[in-house]
User: Which sequence fits this backbone?
């Protein structure tokens, strides 16, 4: 059974930085692609970034390119999202997902609030 726990969210001023972590349990982490999604109040959940199982391939939604960096440490079963130059429109609950062969797993999310 896979469990994902996000951490690192909080309140930050515009232009600031945060680093989110996603700690995974289970035996599938090192072989699974992983994603970050976010959901702002009153909006649908949206894709933010993805990383391949090895970490060698990453992809970002246009609105965060050049500001966010996704990475992973398979030895620690942890994925990260470094967020720089934060904007008020980045305010959302951020979720991590693990896409295994059998199903996708989701964490419960961590709140990021960017004050203007």
Assistant:
């Amino acid at each position: 059974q896979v469990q994902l726990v996000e951490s690192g969210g909080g309140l930050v001023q515009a232009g600031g930085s945060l680093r989110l972590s996603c700690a995974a349990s289970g035996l599938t982490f090192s072989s699974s692609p992983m994603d970050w999604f976010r959901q702002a109040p009153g909006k649908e959940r949206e894709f933010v970034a993805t990383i391949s199982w090895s970490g060698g391939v990453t992809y970002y939604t246009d609105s965060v390119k050049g500001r966010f960096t996704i990475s992973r440490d398979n030895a620690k079963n942890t994925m990260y999202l470094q967020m720089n130059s934060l904007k008020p429109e980045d305010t959302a609950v951020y979720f991590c997902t693990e896409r295994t062969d059998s199903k996708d797993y989701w964490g419960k999310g961590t709140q990021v609030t960017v004050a203007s």
DSSP finds no helices and eleven strands in the chain. The radius of gyration is 13 Å.
